[in-house]
Amino acid sequence: MLQKRRGRRKKRVCNFCADNVTVVNYKDINKLRKYISERGKILPRRITGSCAKHQRALTVAIKRSRHMALMAYTQD
Predict the structure, then answer these.
(1) What is the pTM of this model?
(2) Which one, of 56, 39, 40, 45, lies nearest residue 14 by Cα?
(3) Which burial class, exposed, middle or buried, applies to 67 when counting CB atoms under 10 A from its CB (0-12, 13-18, 19+)?
(4) Please, is 74 exposed, middle or buried when counting C-beta atoms within 10 Å of its C-beta (0-12, 13-18, 19+)?
(5) Closest of 61, 17, 10 to residue 36, by C-alpha
(6) Which of 11, 23, 35, 69 gets the highest tally of CB atoms within 10 A of its CB?
(7) What is the DSSP string of the chain?
(8) d(CA 49, CA 51)
(9) What is the Cα gyration radius of the chain?
(10) How far apart are CA 76 and CA 62, in angstroms?
(11) pLDDT, tens digit, for every residue of 46-68?
(12) For position 26, what pLDDT does the model report?
């Protein structure tokens, strides 16, 4: 019989909290690209592991960089 894995997974630590980042810069495209899927969508918190505060700041920064034409809206 297959047994289901029980137990708790290790809690992910927010990368921004670990680095004591207060503001997510929209001009830092290399860092923002890590939080976008290959289709150009913003990855959710459960995948990125960031806290709610930094996920909101990350979303605003990605949308702002798209508006400023630093990043593309979609990936082809």
Answers:
(1) 0.81
(2) 45
(3) exposed
(4) exposed
(5) 61
(6) 35
(7) -PPPP-SPPPPPPPHHHHTT--S--TT-HHHHGGGB-TTSPBPPHHHH---HHHHHHHHHHHHHHHHTTSS-SS--
(8) 7
(9) 15
(10) 18
(11) 999 999 999 999 999 999 999 99
(12) 94
Tens of pLDDT, residues 3-52: 676 767 777 789 999 999 889 999 999 999 999 999 999 999 999 999 99
Residue in the block written with tokens 């034409």: 69
